Amino acid sequence: xxxxxxxxxxxxxxxxxxxxxxxxxxxxxxxxxxxxxxxxxxxxxxxxxxxxxxxxxxxxxxxxxxxxxxxxxxxxxxxxxxxxxxxxxxxxxxxxxxxxxxxxxxxxxxxxxxxxxxxxxxxxxxxxxxxxxxxxxxxxxxxxxxxxxxxxxxxxxxxxxxxxxxxxxxxxxxxxxxxxxxxxxxxxxxxxxxxxxxxxxxxxxxxxxxxxxxxxxxxxxxxxxxxxxxxxxxxxxxxxxxxxxxxxxxxxxxxxxxxxxxxxxxxxxxxxxxxxxxxxxxxxxxxxxxxxxxxxxxxxxxxxxxxxxxxxxxxxxxxxxxxxxxxxxxxxxxxxxxxxxxxxxxxxxxxxxxxxxxxxxxxxxxxxxxxxxxxxxxxxxxxxxxxxxxxxxxxxxxxxxxxxxxxxxxxxxxxxxxxxxxxxxxxxxxxxxxxxxxxxxxxxxxxxxxxxxxxxxxxxxxxxxxxxxxxxxxxxxxxxxxxxxxxxxxxxxxxxxxxxxxxxxxxxxxxxxxxxxxxxxxxxxxxxxxxxxxxxxxxxxxxxxxxxxxxxxx
Length: 554
Hints:
Blueprint: H1 5-14, H2 20-51, H3 59-106, H4 116-136, H5 138-156, H6 160-176, H7 178-185, H8 188-208, H9 210-215, H10 219-275, H11 281-292, H12 296-302, H13 304-323, E1 342-351, E2 354-364, E3 369-373, H14 380-387, E4 395-400, E5 403-404, H15 410-416, E6 417-420, H16 431-436, H17 444-453, H18 457-461, H19 480-494, E7 498-502, H20 510-523, E8 528-532, H21 536-539, E9 544-549, E10 552-553
Parallel strand pairs: 3-8, 3-9, 6-7, 7-8
Antiparallel strand pairs: 1-2, 1-4, 4-5, 9-10
């Protein structure tokens, strides 16, 4: 969804509400600090006037005041930055928490087929970029507004035209100059963030497929594409930096011109006042020095004009995830249900308008093993996912214990079911911790018993660290069959009454397959099993076999 900069800013600012007190403190310290910094130049001007006899202030008092302002400026600046960064890092943690909650809500239907590299880019670099907004944009903008108001009033005390000129100068540097820079950036920030995410996905994909790249000798082509993507990203970044550099150069030149203008205007006003018998030198020097020393907050705000394009683009991508609606909403507040069998009634389902299941029905009575066979792409795995309620059917009903799965608490439904795919995902941790995902409070005895049923206990015992052996990234320290057996052990450890097994023995040899099937047969008294497999040997333990062809059961 495309949002304007102000819409993104409003949403991001809204998140600051719980930390409004810290933000107010940061603004107060920032305003006082900038006033102390400007007071240094103003007091210096009064010191010079005192030396030449144009001011009655004691020189020693002026120097003491300047020293006090210098010390206060340092302390206040530190306090302001500490508050801003405290707010920023607290909010980044809050945003990450919300993004992870949103991803959990969207999974798996909305995340299937989505680029993992792009998601990683949003979770890491995009959210990190928001630190610029929270630490260096909100309070500096409020500080600049308050600071300019105070300086306009102070400079205006030397003459109304000088106050009006100061207001015009601040508006020119803080508003008029950043606007063209922001327009020049255009969609560059969003394009840069999008390409950055795509590059992250391409690199991740290349690393995962490194064996295939080497085997088929396509490394040069892959490297050429990586260079092309990197060059395109660098070109986008270069354009953004050129806009920022031009904006900074123009701002510096305009500030110099405005300072000269204030000098001339104050001289003209002072000349008029001198004609009336009033002091002239102070009216020229003090307003000019005050304006020259007061552009800091405004320039800092102006320099954000182009860099904020990338920040708002990152904010847009984060908000896209937070605002995206899941295809399947979690259910809560229903009465708990025990397991009394499962069934599909005239189920119809399609992916993006492409029919997959067409009026399919089957019954899985309690304590039975129901085999599901069929060609690849016929909808077997999809049917299991509908029982897990990863998706909703377009028509018909998917039932557990005689109730539609959409009428059962999601947490309750998942406690009744254990789903095993042929591609078991293992986290970068030990075997023991990967198994405990299924039951966090499992004892070592329970873990070992589950592994015996999955015919993997003896293998684990041969490893140097046993159950504490790390599995590596994505479980790449183990073979496909070993990962699959650990996935089965998870299901046994979960001890759910309804097992949904998608090709659970596809990576196993005949010996290990026989051990696993015997374990399933022994457990049938307390479990119902939906068993998807191409293997005739696996189907021998099934009480009934349903063939799914073209989305229909026979």
